[in-house]
Amino acid sequence: MPRITSEPAPSVEELEAQQRRLVFRRFTHDDAWALGSLLVGLARERQAPVAIDIHRAGQQLFHAALPGSTVDNDAWIARKRRVVERYGAASYLVGARFRAKGTTFEESSRLDPDVYAAHGGSFPITVDGAGVIGTVTVSGLPQLQDHRLVVEALEQFLDRPTG
């Protein structure tokens, strides 16, 4: 079964700190494959029914659909990815910022909810000196778990020794 935690949701400040910390020196096609494969491994360990997507500069570099995921997960990926591309911030962070103001993304963004979803699971791929150049997105778990899975994979990927 997927691992479900009962930890409280992170604050806007914690989410912003994650984003400042999880920055790449570079991001290549090979990095997309390695990061996507790492996410697949983590999801398989947990039997998580997710779809995983990595985009860079408008090009899909990685996509995997694990058992139990559906075509709806691909639609959620696209909607969450568009939020990151528009706001330059993690989809969960964007939603949290609206909630912190006492509203919701759907009520206050003035964006079509069929096109944009500020739900957890999409995270910007930020390259030092270049800014946001892409996205890594997971869909299939509750939004906070989608977000945490992506963050866990980014932390492992960025902490690994480079040769």
UniProtKB/TrEMBL annotation:
It comes from the Bacteria. This is UPF0303 protein FHS34_000150. InterPro entries: PduO/GlcC-like, PduO/GlcC-like_sf, YBR137W-like. Belongs to the UPF0303 family. NCBIfam families: PRK02487.1-5. Signal peptide: none annotated.
